[in-house]
Amino acid sequence: MSNVFVFDHPLIQHKLTYIRDKNTGTKEFRELVDEVAMLMAFEITRDLPTSDVEVETPVTTSKSKVLAGKKLGLVPILRAGLGMVDGVRKLIPAAKVGHVGLYRDPETLKPVEYYVKLPNDIKERELIVIDPMLATGGSAIDAIGALKKRGAKNIRLMCLVAAPEGVKAVQEVHPDVDIYLAALDERLDDHGYIVPGLGDAGDRLFGTK
Ligand code: PRP
Ligand code: URA
Predict the structure, then answer these.
(1) How far apart are alpha carbons 191 and 209 in whole angstroms?
(2) What is the CATH number of the domain that holds 151?
(3) Any known ligand binding at 37?
(4) Does 129 fall in a domain?
(5) 140 in ligand 2 pocket by Cβ < 6 Å?
(6) Cα(33)–Cα(133) distance, rounded to whole angstroms?
(7) Are the CB atoms for 100 and 75 separated by under 8 Å?
(8) Annotated binding residue at 47?
(9) Residue nearest (by alpha carbon) to ligand 1 atom 18
(10) Looking at the domain assignment, is residue 64 inside a domain?
């Protein structure tokens, strides 16, 4: 079974409070999501392997470390996942970015795939699937499935807020995928919204309704 990490760093939790607040407007919401994504990226990459190199400082030779192992790839689920990509890229600027387009049918709550464009070497990359919301889990399950179908082997899932139902569903279908969250909320409501949640992440990020 995969691991679930909930980041309780005070900066992440402080910013998440204002992200949740219904009075936070689009500009501030977008900025806060970007900042939390960057802070989460710092935590998510904590276990990346490093190797030793020698570097000439202006004073002497120093044994130092550089990232080793697989290259990274970021895969936001359109559209709300886009709101977190730049924050992650601030820390991992060389990561390639693929896109999976899914929307959740409001009647069935089932995800509908409309776009997939990925780096051609995803098999060799450590991929981070990015979406602010993990509700029923259907979108994340299908997005991860779309990556695996194309050969991806090393996948992590990064979300701001999750419902326990979504976490369980992802773990059942993709037990190899670790899940990284800023918050694990109480439940889903009858419309598949996360409670207490933050509302519709895509609409709040892009100012649509
Ligand atoms: C939201 C959210 C997730 C999905 C989560 O996207 O960004 O992708 O719902 O719900 P689930 O876990 O029940 O699948 P939405 O379908 O609203 O599309 P959008 O990103 O284009 O707004
Ligand atoms: N998608 C959202 O944007 N918010 C939710 O609470 C659930 C799904």
Answers:
(1) 16
(2) 3.40.50.2020
(3) no
(4) yes
(5) no
(6) 12
(7) yes
(8) no
(9) 103
(10) no
